[in-house]
Write a structure and sequence with these properties.
Layout lengths: L1 E2 H19 L4 H8 L3 H9 L6 H10 L5 H10 L21 H12 L2 E6 L10 H11 L5 H14 L10 E7 H5 L5 H15 L4 E6 L13 E5 L8 E5 L4 E4 L2 H17 L3 H12 L3
């Protein structure tokens, strides 16, 4: 387990090395093509040092990489702060958001699919404004109203990935406690449940409820997110959230274990159709 920036450097380096090898170029030749010392290419490929977005673009040009989506993803992994590619809106909040949260948002914005287990609250991508406000206020005690407004604004802006021309494919397993926990009062919760019903009908959103009747399950250890990318599975990553930081798991063994765990949860959870009925019944007070 490592923090996101370290994982992303290693993933970026591994992908650049694979692209160089595929192009039939040695590290020495790559260095000459971009005007560097060979040691810089090696440090980037091993993840021992970071690469600037401009560095990544130089290497991709040298390797003849023309895939715009892959180029943008790799530049994002380098921590792009410029206007290249799509609008990286979260950079406007650098003074407010911790690095781990910005890291999460950038992964979320570039992923093609997201699988998540939620055991306590509704996933951020599906929260209503008032639910998001109540959750944020509870999570950060004594938060000034202006800062609270900003964090809610960010939470809602993240939801644009579900409204994009090619939207993020979201598969979420919600423990029943997510539906039963009254966040923000009865009215807020009722509207939030109605939002879940609405979201569950979207073709790219799959919601399944894990009822209390399912008993103990592999998800009792806590929530997690698996991000997948259409360009390459080598960039897939598991994210575990903690109170003050996030941990990223990149090893194939870890990805395999969490993928198996998520698939097991899908088996124990209600079907998407039954889950929709369950959420609607919960909203109606049944």
């Amino acid at each position: 387990m490592q923090h996101g920036p370290v994982v992303r450097r290693r993933k970026l380096g591994a992908e650049l090395r694979a692209l160089r090898t595929s192009a039939g170029i040695t590290s020495g030749e790559a260095a000459r093509l971009v005007g560097w010392h060979q040691s810089k290419v090696s440090r980037i490929e091993t993840g021992t040092s970071g690469a600037k977005p401009a560095d990544v673009r130089l290497l991709l040009d040298a390797y003849g990489v023309a895939d715009d989506q892959l180029r943008e993803l790799l530049v994002t992994l380098a921590g792009s702060d410029d206007a290249g590619g799509r609008n990286h809106w979260w950079h406007a909040y650098r003074g407010v958001l911790p690095p781990t949260y910005r890291d999460f948002i950038s992964l979320e914005s570039q992923a093609s699919a997201m699988r998540t287990l939620e055991t306590t609250v509704v996933p951020g991508l599906l929260q209503t404004p008032e639910y998001a406000r109540a959750v944020t206020r509870a999570a950060v005690d004594g938060l000034p109203e202006e800062r609270l407004d900003t964090l809610v604004e960010v939470r809602l802006a993240r939801q644009d990935v579900l409204r994009a021309p090619t939207p993020l494919r979201l598969s979420a397993v919600l423990d029943e406690s997510v539906l039963r926990r009254e966040v923000g009062g009865p009215g807020v919760m009722a509207r939030q449940l109605a939002r879940l019903v609405e979201a569950a009908r979207l073709p790219h959103v799959r919601l399944q409820v894990l009822p209390f009747a399912a008993g103990a399950h592999i998800g009792v250890t806590g929530p997690f997110v698996i991000f997948s990318f259409s360009s390459t599975s080598d960039l897939d990553v598991v994210v575990l959230d903690h109170l003050t930081s996030s941990l990223h798991l990149e090893r194939k063994e870890d990805l395999g274990a969490y993928t198996e765990a998520f698939n097991a949860l899908l088996i124990h959870a209600l079907s998407p159709e039954d889950s929709l009925d369950f959420i609607a019944a919960t909203a109606a007070g049944a």
